[in-house]
Structures are given as C-alpha cells and as structure tokens.
C-alpha cells in the first residue's frame, strides 16, 4: 500500500474541520465549490486553517484568486477566458494545473480549478518558496564585516 501524501492528509483534516464533510469525500479531484459545497465564507476559513496548520501566511488573492475585476477586462471575452487571461492565471497561480481550463475556457470552468489537489499543490509550492526564502536568509547571514567595515562573503 502506498504511503499517503502528508500534505494531502493535513489538507484533508483542514477541509473536514472547515466544511464538515466526510473524510472519504475529500479526494484530490473533489472541487471545493461543487463537490464539497464550500461557499465564499468557507474559503476564508480554509485559508485561515491552512495558515495555522502549515505555519505560513497566505496573502489575499494568492490562493483563491479574484476573477473578474475591472482591470482584468482583457482576460475575459464573451464568457470565456482569453489567451491573456490564461497567461495571467499561469503567472498568478504557478502551482496550478491549468490543462483543463486550456481545453475549456468557459469562465465557469475557472471554479473547477479549485480542487483538493490544487490546495495540496499550493501548500507544496508555498513550502518550497518558503524554503527558498530561508536559504536566502542563510546566505545573507554568511556575510560578515571585514576590519574595514566592507562586506565580505564568508567561506568563499
């Protein structure tokens, strides 16, 4: 038997607590809105619980993007996501699998992106990004001052 993905296990716990769904209903392909019945207020609770569970901040709009703001008029045309819209989503959601949306560009398909798998991908991405920031901090800490008070790199 395969070892369960530890991120999926923790995300499942968050969703069970937040949405009051059965653990068996929380599958990677389950959509938050359609299959698990999440509403907009639930998305806020999910963000809060993910932050607490994984110990990182989720900036507003980073996970659950705001779709149709006036400054994004070029991203939608006749109820369909444009090529520019897809590019913007790729840039704003580097953790997302957009292959389904690339095939079916209806605006309603954007909501289908928000699955359990998307949350797992987001958390994994966020943890990798956080590690990258930690590596940067460690690298900066390796800088010391010379007797002339000019920065020098230690160990090089």
Topology:
Blueprint: H1 6-19, H2 40-54, E1 76-77, E2 80-81, H3 83-92, H4 99-103, H5 108-111, H6 116-141, E3 143-145, E4 151-153
Antiparallel strand pairs: 1-2, 3-4
- Major sheet attributes: 2 strands, antiparallel
By DSSP, the count of extended strands is 4
User: Cα distance, first to last residue?
Assistant: 47 Å
Task: Indicate the percent of residues in helices.
Answer: 40-55%
Q: What portion of the residues fall into strands of 2 or more residues?
A: 5-15%
The total of helices stands at 6
Low-confidence stretches: 134-156
Q: Could you name the CATH topology of the largest domain?
A: Non-ribosomal Peptide Synthetase Peptidyl Carrier Protein, Chain A
CATH superfamily annotation of the largest domain: ACP-like
Order of helices and strands: HHEEHHHHEE
CATH architecture of the largest domain: Orthogonal Bundle
So what's the CATH class of the largest domain?
Answer: Mainly Alpha
Give the oligomer, counting copies of the same chain as homo and different chains as hetero.
single chain
Structural class: mainly alpha
């Amino acid at each position: 038997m395969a070892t369960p993905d530890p991120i999926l296990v923790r995300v499942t716990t968050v969703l069970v607590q937040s949405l009051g769904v059965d653990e068996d209903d929380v599958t990677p392909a389950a959509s938050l809105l359609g299959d698990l019945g999440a509403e907009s207020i639930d998305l806020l609770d999910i963000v809060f619980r993910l932050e607490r569970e994984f110990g990182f901040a989720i900036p507003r709009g980073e996970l659950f993007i705001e779709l149709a703001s006036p400054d994004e008029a070029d991203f939608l045309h006749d109820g369909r996501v444009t090529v520019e819209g897809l590019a913007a989503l790729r840039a704003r959601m580097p953790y997302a699998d957009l292959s389904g949306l690339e095939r079916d560009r209806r605006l309603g398909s954007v909501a289908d992106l928000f699955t359990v798998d998307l949350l797992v991908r987001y958390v994994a991405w966020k943890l990798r990004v956080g590690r990258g920031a930690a590596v940067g901090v460690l690298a900066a800490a390796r800088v010391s001052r010379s007797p002339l008070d000019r920065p020098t790199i230690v160990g090089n």
